[in-house]
Amino acid sequence: MKHVSILVPKSNTILSSVVGPYKIFKSVNDFIIQTGKSQQPFFDINLVGIDKDTVLYDGAFSIHCDATIHDISKTDLIIISAVKPEWITDDIKTNYEFIPWIKKQRTQHNAEVASLCLGAFLLAETGLLDNKQCTTHWAGIDLFRQMYPKIDVLPEKIVTDQNGIYSSGGAYSFLNLIIHLVYKYCGQEVAVYVSKLFEIDINRDNQNQFAIFKGQKEHSDTLIEKAQLFIENNVTEKVSVGQLSNMLAVSQRNFIRRFKKATANTPLEYIQRVKVEAAKNALESTQITINEVMFSVGYTDTKAFRILFKRYTGLTPMAYKNKYNRELVNY
Question: What pTM was computed for the model?
Answer without folding.
Answer: 0.73
